[in-house]
Specification:
By secondary structure, the protein is an alpha/beta fold. The protein has 8 helices and 6 strands. About 4% of the residues have low confidence. The structure holds 2-acetamido-2-deoxy-beta-D-glucopyranose (2 copies). One 2-acetamido-2-deoxy-beta-D-glucopyranose binds next to α7. GO terms for molecular function: protein serine/threonine phosphatase activity.
Amino acid sequence: MYATSKNTMPQRSLASQMCVICLHLTQRFLTLRFLFGLFTGIFFTIIIYHRNESVVDKQPHFRADQSKFEYEKNQLLPDDVSVKTSAGWNSSWDGLKRETSALRHLYLIRHGQYFDNAQSLSEMKLTILGREQLKYTGIRLNQMNIQFNRLIHSGMVRALESATIINEQLDQKLTLIQDANLTEGLPVAPVPYAGISQRDVDSYGDKARIDAAFATYFHRARHNQPRETHDILVFHANLLRYFICKVMQFPTQAWLRMTLNHGSITQITILSDGSIIMKSMGDSGFIPANKVTF
Ligand SMILES: *[C@@H]1O[C@H](CO)[C@@H](O)[C@H](O)[C@H]1NC(C)=O
Ligand SMILES: *[C@@H]1O[C@H](CO)[C@@H](O)[C@H](O)[C@H]1NC(C)=O
């Protein structure tokens, strides 16, 4: 039709020429409308298909029990929480009130592996592996890029050595502070019974001294502390586990149910209202697996 119209156009009247043009434009319009409709249809089909797919797909991403939990969380009315089973929290556990907004960060380090079968206390030094473990601990603490305030150790040889190795790794050197109240001991007889009776505790325990050490370091910021503090404490697993129970307000007799690896870091932050955040417990992920001991 195109070809004939081209050839015959000069002989036709203006009206018939206009008709041909109109017909031509109408055809084009219809073609365009058809294509537009087709693509719109395809477009919306794809969108709806994808939307259905994402709704259907979402379910398997949840763990089976997680979606159940999400459901139950929505169903749970505040009154359903049993007062009997919910744990209490003594917000004035340190005998203080909120005096400032500053935080207190504690980095509790267990000393490295040591000669625990040596004859005397002074011979209970770190083993070669123990020294290596504490080097990793020092490197990790340095990598945290924190300006630490204090580096405190118990004064027992293995804790002093451990603190010294940590300090060697820190870019900002600290003065070592000794606190004999952090010396290893037995705070309370563990439950369940594990070979340590209350009689052992009474003779070797020093609970009063250990509680004094706790009170020295575990408290919210006092009014004379304007900025947050970061203290490293290098000491011993019995005290450390007892302190964890005590600060978390767990039964302290549970301390022996936990173990802490040599050179591990337990990170606790005390907020200004006395709340506790335990950021890690016995973290030793920075020590190669073949060098981890407890
Ligand atoms: C909270 O702890 C403090 C300090 O140990 C204690 O004096 C106080 O009686 C405790 N309060 C309660 C309600 O147990
Ligand atoms: C160590 O503990 C005793 C109580 O056993 C206490 O009188 C003393 O002040 C404590 N020392 C330090 C440095 O906190």
